[in-house]
Write a structure and sequence with these properties.
The chain contains 5 helices and 9 strands; from the N terminus they run αβββααββββαββα. The mean pLDDT is 95.
Length: 228
């Protein structure tokens, strides 16, 4: 349920309410039924059953709808668990594929900062900050107070100053509410114009494939994971 990008919206609504959800513009099983003419100028199309199935539409007047529909049909025909990464991302295996169209989130014309909260036993312990997701991307992993760690996780390191947004404590509290019943989960949130939006819940960070360099951090993170 948490890996299904459509069903997880119900989980978020039950736990913290619907105010934190990115507005849903359309959802369905047939991409040919997407009402492109009624959608705003920019929006995001994604499927609910895998990772990386995203179309970022910055200007729909430049969108070739037939090509987009063909790509979406291809995605719907794939089983992300069976077809990617040797079957390691098992939670996607039995999700019924659907297409989701959501509003575009922006801060001053750019993708908002993505805050990824690593929650162990319902407590935020570490935070990955991802910037400029659509290029050139950079990130930094920090402790709970946003103090950067000397840790590289496979993506270009952000070297600038990290400043807590005004609603950072709200985000921490929200992440912990969503994670309270789980031994581990990564809760991804956005802050745009002082409003917090839910991104996704990730059961296995980077599919379990991202390096921890230096390797000691693999154990630093692992110490927090208490399996009952």
């Amino acid at each position: 349920m948490l890996s299904d990008k459509l069903l997880v919206r119900d989980y978020v609504t039950r736990k913290v309410g619907s105010d934190f959800l990115i507005p849903l513009l359309w959802q369905g099983e047939n991409p040919a039924e997407i009402p492109f003419d009624r959608l705003p100028l920019n929006f995001v199309i994604k499927s609910n059953h895998g990772c990386g199935y995203n179309l970022i539409i910055n200007n729909k007047t430049q969108l070739i709808c037939e090509q987009a529909i063909a790509l979406l049909k291809k995605w719907l025909g794939e089983n992300f668990c069976d077809d990617k990464y040797a079957g390691t991302e098992w939670a996607y295996k039995h999700i019924k594929p659907r297409i989701i169209v959501e509003s575009m989130l922006e801060n001053d014309g750019k993708a908002p900062v993505d805050y990824k909260f690593f929650c162990f036993s319902g407590r935020v312990e570490y935070v990955q900050i991802s910037l400029d997701r659509f290029g050139p991307a950079s990130e930094r992993i920090c402790d709970r107070e946003l103090t950067p760690l000397n840790l590289w996780n496979g993506v270009r390191l952000f070297e600038g100053e990290i400043v807590q947004p005004g609603n950072y404590r709200e985000m921490v509290g929200l992440a912990e509410q969503l994670a309270e019943d789980l031994d581990f989960i990564r809760v991804d949130l956005y802050s745009t114009n002082d409003h917090v939006y839910f991104g996704e819940m990730t059961c296995y960070h980077a599919g379990g494939l991202a390096p921890f360099i230096p390797r000691a951090y693999d154990f630093v993170f692992g110490e927090k994971w208490i399996i009952k």
